[in-house]
Each structure stands twice: as structure tokens, then as C-alpha cells.
Amino acid sequence: MTGEIPSTETKNQEINENIEVIFEQNPDLDSSQTVENNQEVSEDNISVETEQQNSATTSPEIVLLKEAYEASQNQLESANLQLEEKESQYKRLGADFDNFRKRTQKEKEELDLQVKCATIIELLPVIDNFERARSQIKPANDGEMTIHKSYQSVYKQMVDSLKKLGVSAMRPEGQEFDPNLHEAVMREETTQYPEGTVIEELVRGYIIGDRILRHAMVKVATVPESTDDETENQTEPEN
């Protein structure tokens, strides 16, 4: 068959025939040396044939190992990509959950504050009535004084409760009028205070934290208008 590798015996036979021809043509050659050379050639041929057989048998195994190695490398790269994607998804999910938790907590605090403010605003008129009673009612005897002290103790308890909730009363007298805090319901001409100064608090204002529960109703100072006589005196020329 074409391309078939000759066996070792065939090669040895060919070599021996060639040696015999050479020996017949050259009778002076040493036959022992020829035999040794023949043996060396035979051993070389055996070694070459063994290497060829080993290479023929190991080449498919090497190819399979390379293919398996490349496949494992591809699987490892794919697994690393999937791991990175899962880690990225986990980080995004953690960030979204943290933002949701903060937003929910903020909304809960805002809702609690709104409910608290709405409840306190409903109680402020009661506080106003206690303050009016304290300023207007003048006890005339011991019995009236006892009643006066009793409802004033209730008023004090309510004020203390509001303080514990973080409510504080405005004290605008003597301060400059601030439309964010005050509501001007009266104006008074006076020279005792600069223009725009709060002279009197008519209805007390309250705040809780940085939020206004109720604006203070106040009286504001204005500059007195000049009289007609003063105007005539200012415009009349001197004689």
C-alpha cells in the first residue's frame, strides 16, 4: 500500500542484503565490524520506528487535551463574566434597597410630624383661652383664687406637654417684623420704636423645630404722619 511505513524486519533484511553485496565486493572488510554496524543500524531503525509509533499514538491525545483545555478556559471565562454580572446586580440591588429604606424612613418621619402638627394646632385655641383667662380674670376672694389656681395648673401642664413635643412659643415683641413668622393685624404710629418693629403680640405664634405651627398676630410700629401745621411751618418762608 502506498505511504505504508516499512516494518523493522523488512528494513533489516534490506540492510543485510546490502551489506552482503558490499562484503562480496570488498572481501577485505571486517565481518565483525559489519555485524556491529548492522546491529547499530537495526537499533537506530527500531528507535525511529518506536518514536514514530509513539508520536502516532500520542498526537490524538494531545489534540484532545488541548481541546479540553480550551473548553475549560472558555467555561472559566464565561463563569467569571456571570459572576461579575451577579456581583453588579447585587450591588445595584443593595443600593436600591438602601435608598428605599432611607426614603421610607424620611416619609414616615414626615408623616409623623404632619400628624403631630395637626393635633397640636387643634389644641392651640385651648391654650389661647387659658391665657386670656389668666390675663382678664382677677380673683376677688379666696374661693375665686382657688378656682383660678386650679385651671392655671391645667394650663401649665398643657404648656409643659407642648414643650416636651418640641413646641416653642414666639416672642416677637421688640423684634423686626418678619412676614415669614408674623402677621400684621394692626399698625400704630409711634416714635418710641423704629418703623417695622413689633410692638405687641395679639395672638401668640408657635413653632415646632423649623416648622411654623401658627403665625403670630402682631401690632407693628409705623412712622407718625406730619400734621398740616407742621407742613405749613416747613414750607412757609422766613420774614
Could you characterize what this model shows?
65% of the residues lie in helices and 13% in strands. It is of the alpha+beta class. The strands form 2 sheets. It has a 3-stranded antiparallel beta sheet. It has a 3-stranded mixed beta sheet with strand order 2-6-3, with no helix packed on it. Helix 1 runs antiparallel to helix 2 and helix 2 (31-136) runs antiparallel to helix 3.
Topology record:
Elements (H helix, E strand, L loop, with lengths): L7 H18 L5 H106 L5 H23 L2 E3 L12 E8 L8 E6 L2 E3 L2 E4 L1 E7 L5 H8 L4
Parallel strand pairs: 2-6
Antiparallel strand pairs: 1-4, 3-6, 4-5
Helix pairs in contact: 1-2, 2-3
Briefly characterize the structure.
The protein is α+β, with helices and mostly antiparallel strands and 239 residues long. The chain has 4 helices and 6 strands, in the order H-H-H-E-E-E-E-E-E-H.
List keywords for this structure.
disordered N terminus, three-stranded mixed sheet, 65% helix, rod-shaped, 4 helices, alpha+beta
Tell me how many strands there are: 6
Low-pLDDT segments, ≥5 res: 1-5
Q: Report the portion of residues in β strands.
A: 5-15%
DSSP helical segment count: 4
Q: In what order do the strands lie side by side in the largest sheet?
A: 1-4-5
Q: Ends: how far apart?
A: 154 Å
Q: Return the average pLDDT rounded to an integer.
A: 79
Indicate the radius of gyration in whole angstroms. 57 Å
Question: Which range best describes the helical content: under 10%, 10-25%, 25-40%, 40-55%, 55-70% or over 70%?
Answer: 55-70%
- Please trace the helix and strand order, writing H or E for each element: HHHEEEEEEH
General form: rod-shaped
The structure class reads alpha+beta
Largest sheet: 3 strands, antiparallel
